[in-house]
Amino acid sequence: MKKISIILSFFAFILLMNACDKDDSLDIGPYEFQEQEVDTTTALGKKIFEINQKYESKVIYNWDSHFIGNEAIAYPPRVEKVYDFLLLMEEIWFKPYYSDEFLRKNLPREIVLIGGSINYGEANGTSMSAAGQADSQYRINIGMVNDFSTDLAPDAYLEYRRNMEKVLHHEFAHILNKRYGLPKGYAEISKGLYLKNTHFSSLGYLEALNRGFIRPYGASNELEDFATLSEMVVTRSKETVLHNLFQMVNEAGNGYVYLGVADFDKVYKKYQMLIDYYNELGIDVQRIGNESEAWLMNYIEENDF
């Protein structure tokens, strides 16, 4: 069936994320624990202490450049932004898993907050802005904190929340891959079709889907392939993921059809592997997606979009 164009459906993800280290080694060394001093007389200090006690993860918002490496440019968040961001982060990242045990085992030991994007210059002269980065098995860097405010207009809040959901779950998928690897046989589905040293912007959406990638960025390497699919599954309902993610112009050019991963064989095989992968970890990831989309639809209705 020939189609002449493809566009992502409403509220598609538009933030770019930096490609991670391609090494998917399972050799996880010991974490070098350092005590974290927080002022628990403040609301922010209490929240950071609570997260540390509950999940054994340290939230770090005062930091130096070694957290992002010498090749990147970034800046810390404004302190007055951090508390409200942490409440949102808990709501859209921690709570949906319904398992403190799972989170305590798998959350990164350090969650580093960054005020804006993480900016990289690449060897080919291009630049890259990242909203998040899974730095290692133990650290995740989360940007764009300063863009959040509880006073955002409903449409701006919705856009920020939905984008940040994908950032957080995308980077968390990388953390899981570093601990458990990829599903067996996952990378074989698109063997020879990854772009490797070619920039993902050279790949169109339809070609990406036919190659087995939910969006062009997933063709960067095997780990980004898994993470981009994870971010979509965990934020959209099963029905949407399978059948309604993409709006495509029909052959006559006078209307639209809606397609999902079930219409692209390679992506669908990966989707099934991904669901099994999370199930083996005790997580019904599509249940999270169903609840996320239900919230979305309710918010749209309440705000009369």
Textual characterization of the structure:
The protein is α+β, with helices and mostly antiparallel strands and 305 residues long. The protein has a single domain (42-302), classed as Collagenase (Catalytic Domain) (3-Layer(aba) Sandwich), CATH 3.40.390. It contains nine helices and ten strands. It has helices spanning 43-55, 79-94, 100-106, 154-180, 205-211, 222-233, 238-243, 265-280, 285-302; strands spanning 6-8, 58-60, 72-73, 110-113, 118-121, 127-130, 132-134, 139-142, 246-249, 256-259. Helix 4 (154-180) crosses helix 6. The longest helix has 27 residues, at 154-180. The chain is globular. It starts with 5 loop residues before the first strand and ends with a helix.
CATH architecture tag: 3-Layer(aba) Sandwich
Strand content: 5-15%
Q: Helical percent range?
A: 40-55%
Number of beta strands: 10
| Assembly of the depicted chains | single chain
Number of domains: 1
